[in-house]
Write a structure and sequence with these properties.
Structural class: mainly alpha
Largest sheet: 2 strands, antiparallel
Number of strands: 4
Helix content: 40-55%
Distance between the termini: 10 Å
Number of helices: 7
Radius of gyration: 14 Å
Shape: globular
Strand content: 5-15%
Order of helices and strands: EEHHHHHEEHH
């Protein structure tokens, strides 16, 4: 999946490396990381919003590493702004991409007990974020 920040397309790729980077950046456990992304726990809306921006930036960095590209020239503030101004329909596509991505050979939606995205989760074997363009 690609998202546009500052007029430039940036690929995102989920998976354990991106989640690990998020945990490190926020100094949190993987359990707290998952709570912040998919719900659960007693976290403020602001903390969840911040976590979403960090998760997206980590997924952008992971995409770049996988594809041997330079790290994206994007700050966390620019990603937070992207999150603030992005319409909910577009933000839902990012959530679907996360839900339909793979961890240890299984869909994230299966691993985390999420409701899979309609039809795509049943048909897709790989996240679109793995496709290089």
């Amino acid at each position: 999946m690609k998202i546009k920040i500052n007029g430039k397309d940036h690929g995102i790729h989920w998976g354990m490396p991106a989640l690990g980077d998020m945990c490190e950046a926020l100094d949190i456990s993987i359990e707290t990381c998952i709570e912040l992304i998919v719900g659960g726990g007693e976290h403020t809306p602001f903390k969840r919003a911040k976590a979403s921006a960090v998760a997206i930036l980590c997924a952008m960095n992971h995409y770049a590493r996988l594809n041997r590209l330079e790290a994206p020239d994007v700050t966390i503030y620019e990603v937070e702004n992207y999150c603030d101004i992005t319409p909910s329909e577009e933000f839902n596509k990012i959530r679907e991409d996360f839900s339909n991505s793979m961890i240890n050979g299984r869909l994230v939606s299966e691993v985390l007990g999420l409701t899979p995205a309609p039809i795509q989760a049943q048909v897709k074997k790989k996240s679109q974020s793995t496709k290089k363009s």
